[in-house]
Design goal:
The protein has 247 residues and is α+β, with helices and mostly antiparallel strands. Helix content is 35%, strand content 12%.
Length: 247
């Protein structure tokens, strides 16, 4: 396939940045999207041009690093996939593809297509942990009976990879789906009850401090989530927060 790429280039966070056009020829439809960017960068290096910076790690849809806005959609066309799982057969010969970083106040651009998502780390540090008895009289986790439905829901919430697609898809750049997933995975299990009140309060407060917007229940976050995190987690977060405010 022959393609035209319009890629956001920004040398550092405080630069203005601009869209730059590139042409690609003989792109294999079996390439992943990131492999296509690798080929582009090889060509740019051969031409003594600055390669396009983009984030990646596992390339297996697990790490959540490849935060790309492709044709205005987080991670591009397709459902329940990350950018590294997107293949070029999703596009047609002669297509123009626009590639940008995720846009959010709390996700400042570092360079080109790389954004700083450390705000997610700080939210988790604010309350995403559990207390464990290490006094020598510890109890085996398997000894605690847990309802199968609760265990399943907790596991589903824990599949969140923190990629930030929910923020990029939200018109308010809200992080409620991410925070609700991290709260839910503990709220549903007995091990997470010790810090339950403080967790909900601290994680929401940190989310607000980072500059994320408010949730208006549009649902775009869940629709674009590569792990299909459910909106029911946001309802659970709201209940946990309200309960912690009243006790």
């Amino acid at each position: 396939m022959d393609l035209k790429l319009k890629i956001w280039r920004q040398s550092k966070s405080n630069d203005k940045g601009k869209m730059v056009d590139y042409s690609m020829k003989d792109v294999s439809p079996d390439m992943s999207f990131l492999e296509m960017l690798d080929v582009l960068n090889n060509q740019l290096v051969e031409q003594s041009e600055e390669p396009v910076s983009f984030d990646h790690d596992c390339r297996e849809g697990i790490c959540g690093s490849c935060s790309l806005q492709i044709n205005g959609q987080p991670h591009g066309p397709g459902e329940a996939i990350t950018s590294c799982q997107l293949h070029m057969r999703s596009f047609k010969d002669g297509d123009t593809i626009t590639i940008e970083p995720f846009r959010a106040k709390a996700f400042p651009v570092i360079k080109d297509l790389i954004v700083d998502r450390s705000s997610f780390d700080r939210i988790q540090h604010a309350g995403g942990y559990i207390s464990v008895n290490t006094s020598g009289n510890t109890q085996d986790a398997n000894a605690l009976p847990i309802n199968k439905a609760d265990a399943d829901h907790a596991f589903d919430a824990a599949t969140c990879i923190g990629c930030g697609a929910c923020v990029a898809a939200c018109k308010n750049a809200s992080a409620m789906l991410f925070v609700s997933a991290k709260v839910s995975q503990y709220a549903l299990l007995p091990q997470g009850q010790v810090e339950a009140k403080k967790r909900a309060q601290d994680m929401v407060a940190q989310m607000d401090d980072e500059g994320f917007g408010a949730c208006t229940n549009t649902g775009a976050c869940s629709a674009e989530c590569p792990k299909e995190i459910s909106l029911t987690n946001i309802a659970r977060l709201n209940r946990e927060y309200l309960k912690s405010s009243l006790t």
